[in-house]
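Field reference: sequence -> structure
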Amino acid sequence: MSRERYDLLLKGGRCVTPGGIVAADVGIRGDRIVRLGELDAGTAAETMDCRGLHVLPGVIDSQVHFREPGLEHKEDLATGTAAAALGGVTAVFDMPNTKPSTVSAADLADKCRRAKNRVWVDIAFWVGAAEENIPQLADLERLPSAAGTKLFMGSSTGTLLVAEDAAIARVLASGSRRIAVHAEDEARLKERFALVAGGADPANHPHWRDAQTAVSATRRLLALARGVGRRVHVLHVSTADELPVLAENRDLATVEVTPQHLTLAAPDCYQALGTFAQMNPPIRDASHRDALWRAVTEGLVDCIGSDHAPHTREEKAKPYPESPSGMPGVQTLVPVMLNHVAAGRLSLERFVDLTAAGPARIFGIVGCGRIASGYLASLTIVDLAARRTISNQWIASRCGWTPFDGLTVTGWPVATIVRGRMVMRDGELRGGPAGDAVRFLETL
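Structure field:
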């Protein structure tokens, strides 16, 4: 038994490692994992009894909207990252559609200043593509704390939009890191808006923003990306129709799906939640949800992102289509997906691949994605047997609600460790907000 000294020792848990699920203690010194195996608890400054628990590589949510600056009445960096920590998420990538949008080095620097000493988990920031900043994108995506470039092909929350093929091609040609894309066809959205203009039932949302709106944009994106040799990451894929197209372009494209699209289905979600089920791209019928699950099972899906996009209850209660699209999700990602593990829809190892190893591989995140010596001690500790009911009262996001209110799940995050610091344990935040910048491989 090792007598090495540790700052934190996780004792008696089952660890999801590259070699499988194994019983092992985890010894942590500073911000790193230094040893796995049978370790002496007397050599640690702090020990956590993990018997009956599973230790996972830290969950990474690569699509969140924390609304700061300019929209802090919905969310800010402090409340959003607190929600992440309470939900077992150790790192987040924040989206650029704030006020002002994150489109310059100064905008990125401002977000970094705002994050300092206020974020509970590690963070990176997407830079938004806009027609006016295309010449600078190759440099902007390489700045410290930049997750890369985000391209909106279809309009959503905020003003960022690059809709025409010529401009999209220029964006794709400016830079080399994998670019994240919201793929909806803006021209088709405008053509079909008459279906809901003047007021409609929220259940019409997936009819206005239909499957063809998504698949048309994805086809255009992949053709343009192939033309310039740019790797793309297609966000929140929502349709069965896109999946064969994406499968044909595996050398170029990676795929994200959300817990919402894997869990909810029309028309039931609109009958139960109304505008609170409204997001872009929409929640669609069960045939699309089933196709997404097949893509998860067959390995086409590379990662899960929450698309955490909070709005206040008052905003969401506006009549459709005046109501804004988006729903919170960073705090519920882990319990909702663990409930799918409990139901047998995916294995725990596949969950880890989708939420830790996958994001690390796609984006070249340094030191993340696995439990191994030398890797960052960013870990998510879960109780797979715990039964809890998700409630609005549990939600730390400033919006104060969740579409999963009242859902009883099996599987729950019990501790969140970020770079060796336990920031959440048993539902309580610990210490202070000391999240750092996510680091990326410089060669990507």
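Note: The first strand starts at residue 6 and ends at 11.
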